[in-house]
């Protein structure tokens, strides 16, 4: 009994000595001292990593917002096709104006050449067959160069010109007067005011540029080029008038470009009983132009 008590007392004392062991405490403090810088450094890195992750998350959120804006912009982008078509049409119109100016210059040079001759000669377009028209008209006279040259080639012919733009009528009159030529200018839509089969020669240089229909029918400078669908809306209106104003022996000269689909025009005139010939072809910048002659006999 005494031995048992002695043994138990000895174990408790040893346990108390272990808990209060100064060697163990010193060793633990040393280990903590060695590990603390590493732990502090690791803690700093973890903190920096968390800050970087937060910044990365903010950047991702910002990028996501930008991507949403881009997606919305792509879904709501404007249709540029109509604007591209308008730019192409404007480019074509500028080309037409340049062609008109160049053609006018060429015709003026031709007029000067003809004036210097002792007597006028027929224009090459009318050389076959030889004709002596009594009355002729130029529909859409513009500057008046064509009808003036025609009148000089056929001085005994009574020449009329029409244009829906009154300024063009004034210009035609001025061109004729400056070349000592008499031309009757009439401000009208095509040849709508003429009745009866009056004219031996009809010449038409139409507004042949392919445009939207709403651009047709004006009275300003657009009337000189805006041709509407196929570039033929104005031309087709005149085709319906030709049998009513051209004499049976008369000739109708019409300038077209390939975009106007000349074969369709030939078919239309054939229904009215007119034969056709291509009397001239030429390439003017980006246009393939041709002159058609329509006649019955």
What can you see in these coordinates?
This protein is of the alpha/beta class and 297 residues long. 51% of the residues lie in helices and 18% in strands. It is built from seven helices and seven strands; from the N terminus they run αααβαβαββαβαββ. It has helices spanning 2-19, 22-75, 81-115, 145-153, 166-178, 233-245, 262-271; strands spanning 135-139, 158-163, 184-187, 199-204, 246-257, 275-284, 287-295. A seven-stranded mixed beta sheet has the order 3-2-1-4-5-7-6. α3 packs parallel to α4 (145-153). 25% of the residues are buried. Residues 1-11 and 118-130 have low confidence and may be disordered.
Summarize this entry quickly.
The protein is an alpha/beta fold and about 300 residues long.
Write the topology of this structure:
Elements: H1 2-19, H2 22-75, H3 81-115, E1 135-139, H4 145-153, E2 158-163, H5 166-178, E3 184-187, E4 199-204, H6 233-245, E5 246-257, H7 262-271, E6 275-284, E7 287-295
Parallel strand pairs: 1-2, 1-4, 2-3, 4-5
Antiparallel strand pairs: 5-7, 6-7
Helix pairs in contact: 3-4
